[in-house]
Every structure is written in C-alpha cells, then in structure tokens.
C-alpha cells in the first residue's frame, strides 16, 4: 500500500467516525481520538466484510479522482455507529452522566427580620 493509500484510509476513517457519532442519537462521552480510532477500525472492518461478501464494487461512484462505493460506505458507517455506541457504554459513569442522586439538596436562604 502506498502512502496515499494510508492517508486516504486515515481521512476516510476520521469521516466514518464522525458520521458514526452523528448518526447515533444522544450525547456521546468519548473524545476525538477515540472517535478517530473507532472510525479507522470501522473503515478497515467494513472493507474486509464487503470484500468477504463479494459486494466491494457493486455500486461504485467516481467524482474527479475520488472513488468510493455506497454499499461499503454504508457498512463502514454502520460499524462506526456500533463502535461509538460500545465505546460510549464502556466509558459512561454516573458522575459523567449527571445522574448522581446522592448530592445534598441545596438550601435556600431566608432572611430573618429583627
């Protein structure tokens, strides 16, 4: 694989990770680096699965020098959504979620007249 192939995989992986976060509803509590790693992993996994199923070049699109396949992109984004959801579940804590019911209730101050 050439350097341009690696750069393309990194850029497409970042895009797939971002799309995975956008498709998944709600707030995700994972960082940018985790999203990037999940996106690159989803891109590689989606490409491998598409090639194994024999659907890697069924719906190609080419614009200028860019070439992609809609079915492979859908698989990659699907794996990205699953990866972001799993990472969000693994990193979720009660403190980060704001569901801490053990906090002391706030007291309201009242003025006393003398």
Description of the structure:
The radius of gyration is 22 Å and the shape is elongated. The mean pLDDT is 77. Strands 1-2 form a two-stranded antiparallel sheet. The protein is built from 4 helices and 2 strands. By secondary structure, the chain is mainly α. A hairpin with a 2-residue loop joins strand 1 (60-63) and strand 2. The longest helix has 22 residues, at 32-53. It has helices at 3-23, 32-53, 70-91, 94-97; strands at 60-63, 66-69.
Total helical segments: 4
Describe the sheet with the most strands.
2 strands, antiparallel
Structural class: mainly alpha
Fraction in beta strands: 5-15%
Share of residues in helices: 55-70%
The N- and C-terminal alpha carbons lie at a distance of: 84 Å
Assembly type of the shown chains?
single chain
* Order of strands in the sheet with most strands: 1-2
Number of E strands? 2
**Averaging pLDDT over every residue, what do you get?**
77
Identify the overall geometry: elongated
Based on CA atoms alone, the radius of gyration comes out at: 22 Å
The run of helices and strands is HHEEHH
Low-confidence stretches: none
